[in-house]
Amino acid sequence: MAIAKFCKLDLVVHESVRDDVIRDLQKFGCCEIIKVQPSGEDVQELGDLKHLEDKLSEARFAIRFLEPYYEYEGDKIARLLGNKPKVSLNEMAELDSNFDIHKYSAKLRDIERKLSEIRAELSRLKTLEEILIKIKDFPLPLSLLTRGTQYVSGVVAVVPVEQIGVIRTHLEESIKPQEGEFYITKPAEKDKEVYVMATFLKNKEEEIRNIFIANGASIVELDRRLTETPLEELAKIANSREDLNIQEKELCDLAAEEARSNFAKVQLLHDYYDLIKKKTEALSSGLSTDHATWMQMWVPRITVDLIKEAISPYGKLVDMEFTDPGEEDEPPVFLVSKKWALPFEPLTKLYGLPEYDAIDPTPLFAPFYFVFFGMCLGDGGYGIVLASLLLYAILKYRPRRDTFKFFTLLFLGGIATILVGLLTGSWFGDMIDSFPIFEAIRDIKNSVKITDVMYNPMPFLGFSLSLGFVQIIFGLFIAFFDNLRRKDYIGAIGDQGGWITFLLGLASYILVRSGMLPSAFSMPSIILSFVGAGILVATQGREKKHIISKLLSGILSLYSVTSYLGDVLSYSRLLALGLATSAIAMIINTLTLQLFHIPYLGWLMGLILFTVGHSFSLAVNVLGAFVHSLRLQYVEFFSKFYKAGGKPFSPFNMDARYVQVAEAHDYETLIRSKVFG
Q1: Cα separation of 578 and 456, whole Å?
Q2: For the whole model, what pTM was predicted?
């Protein structure tokens, strides 16, 4: 059983036990709600949803505000991997009754507002300070520039260095000694602009401003609150900034204290409101009267008895009917692979879930991916490090669901790599052969080695291509039997049977000609090839109307053999990545040995290079092995039989973001335990 079978549950609940029944189903976590009511129908439920959304919004704000000030305790990696504190529903409800989230978020918003105002003022003062430092030698009160007097105005402008001469000339012509004066700051070595301050009679203001604008200068509008000299204003800014920094620190300390006291509570409330919201949305998805509610759900067929048992205490107040999906229905898809294939499920989900009544590819590609990953990484030393790291992470942090599957997948990839390393003699590249300290174990290493990828890659290449051919033929066989299952006999024989026969015959003939098969297989190979070609010619044009078109389409279909040849050649990347891993490792080892010859610190530098180099190589090559092994499955293998398009199972449950609800069941564990015992 690779894809769980579902049935449809029609549930009618009396109003008196409605909330209790829905809460129990939510704890159970194995039902996916089917929305049967158009949105906007149930005014009461919508009102409840709006109230919950308001609470959730306030909780989200509080979390967003407090999180930068909160110092997490415990293992940060465990937190990142989804380890959550376990809390009961009663604890959550009790907290909600004693904690006013609206009042609390208003308090936090007040702190946020004050902090924003202080930081805005600090930013303004910083900008102002930068300007005042530039013009600090201006000897007159800034009020002449910001406010002027009854007869005098002033202006500050930023002038490109290359325009200083031109502007100086214009200002000298326009401002006579008895009409005003101007000051130009001295540019530093790398300054591209200087400041010009000019004071003049008011009737000159428009003229002076036009001079600046016409010569590429920018007018600076100083704050009207600036009245003293630049140096005096800088002193005032320093005092103001000191006071503001003190206020900011006090508010940050207050926010940190609030985070220590209430951050975990707010997270708990967020999850509680979210759970209640899910329940309310579930209720609003059905049809209700004053006395009863009718709902529909998808439930795994394997859990029907458990659901009946969970609802049995309510007796005749609940009516249930289970039916099989109809032709027009689209049941969700939930994969229930056996334990050995379970780690590979995330790879299937990454590509796209199969349709409900289709083939689950997970157990079909899992062995190939295991071998391919090991061949791509290819180094036993890297395999030991990878497997050890992942085993440690699994045992220490106990990740759940897809995280656990992914970690296990990489652990298995490490095991596969160790096996390949044993057969190819690669342990951190040529470390055992290059470093004298490992001389004692060289014979042991060589005793199990059957090939050397670096110096004799052809056997590895031949094995890679052979594996590719086997997987492609396997994919065609899967499609063949799937068509038989669907009673598409012509498609099975024509689309897959013809190619299987043709390709097997062609491959056998090539092996005969290369001397790898006895010559007695020559004629059977030729016959097999012609039979396959005949099937293809006869069937591939079956959609055409005229006999000539059918025949031509059938003949032209044989050209697709080049596509299959390209698919097989794609598996040469198994050799390419294995060679890359070995080559990089050998370079690191060579450089390490060179460093060892340096007196005194050479050994330390060599150890650092060896550790850092191989760590980097491991990370890069693990990524390459993961991606390229996956590509072979998605492009070369899946294209032969697999079609994604399934809708993932989205159960109505008590999964929460920040905490683990004590009463909640893990639906994955529950379903798998029923399937496999």
Answers
A1: 12
A2: 0.83
